[in-house]
Specification:
Layout lengths: L3 H11 L28 H7 L12 E6 L9 H4 L2 E3 L4 E3 L13 H18 L3 E4 L11 H10 L4 E8 L9 E5 L10 H19 L12 E4 L3 H4 L5 E8 L3 H7 L2 H20 L1
Parallel strand pairs: 1-4, 1-5, 5-8, 6-7
Antiparallel strand pairs: 2-3, 6-8
The structure holds zinc ion.
Length: 275
């Protein structure tokens, strides 16, 4: 058929990559390929037409976030005061947590910040799991909070808190596990790296000062926390500020500032996971 060469030319113009052309030459190359041309394309050129999903920085990473305490803990003392074994001692299953002087609870704060973190980290490709599903329940026990991170085989886990110290104390600190001759020993080194990454990102992202009352340069190491002692994945706690200090409380009560906190913590986790 005499018309054939013209047709082939047209197709080649439309699907430049399938014909070995430069792809940029010719007016036809700039046109959108009609759907009917796709049938002529080789499998490789068809694939090339679909934009591949962009790689995200935390693709394949699993992160467990533990929002400290729970909103109904205070109404269920029998449940949360049950003694559990944290290897170095027995202690309460969970606690009520603190609050600001105006009544904003630590449980509500940790729930809000943790959910903000989920949204940020999922956008960056991570699989994120929380240790509780609402802020109107009880618990779970600190033993279970650790077990959730372990079962998820988390690449990193963080327990979010705010402190209830004397009003004159202020600033944040990160708590990392110490060796206790137990399963956590294997992740003490990695947890320390995670803690330093979180400390640096939090300081940079929020401007909140290093704790004036605990730790050294906002780093503290403990062997009495069930959430750390029972962890077999890299894990840290952060006390994001002192809710009983007026300056810290004003920040922790601000939704805009909590977004800043969530972003800083997400950045700390990402820096550790990319290192
Ligand atoms: Zn707490």
């Amino acid at each position: 058929m005499r018309a054939l060469p013209a047709t082939v030319l047209a197709v080649c113009g439309l699907i430049a990559s399938a014909c070995g052309g430069t792809g940029s030459g010719g007016a036809a190359a700039g046109q959108a390929a009609p759907a009917t041309a796709a049938g002529q394309a080789s499998p490789s050129s068809a694939t090339a037409k679909e934009a591949p999903p962009a790689a995200k920085p935390l693709d394949g990473k699993v992160i467990v976030i533990d929002p400290g305490h729970n909103g109904a803990n205070y109404r269920n003392p029998k449940v949360i005061n049950r003694q559990v074994d944290v290897l170095t001692q027995k202690k309460a299953c969970d606690t009520t947590g603190t609050s600001t002087n105006s009544g904003y609870s630590e449980a509500a704060f940790t729930w809000d910040v943790s959910n903000r973190m989920v949204r940020i980290l999922e956008r960056r490709g991570a699989t994120v799991k929380l240790t509780r599903t609402s802020n109107n329940g009880v618990g779970p026990c600190i033993t279970e909070r650790a077990a959730i991170g372990n079962a998820a085989r988390a690449d990193a886990a963080i327990s979010v808190h705010a402190d209830g110290s004397a009003p004159g104390n202020h600033g944040f600190h990160v708590i990392m596990p110490r060796k206790i001759n137990g399963p956590v020993d294997r992740v003490v080194g990695a947890s320390s790296e995670l803690g330093i990454a979180v400390r640096d990102a939090y300081r940079k992202g929020t401007g909140i000062a290093y704790s004036t009352y605990i730790g050294r340069k906002a780093l503290d190491y403990r062997n009495d926390l069930g959430g750390l002692n029972l962890s077999t994945v890299p894990k840290v706690f952060i006390e994001t500020g002192n809710m009983r200090n007026a300056g810290d409380a004003a920040k922790l009560q601000s939704p805009a500032f909590r977004q800043k906190i969530a972003l800083a913590l997400a950045n700390g986790l990402q820096h550790y996971l990319e290192a």
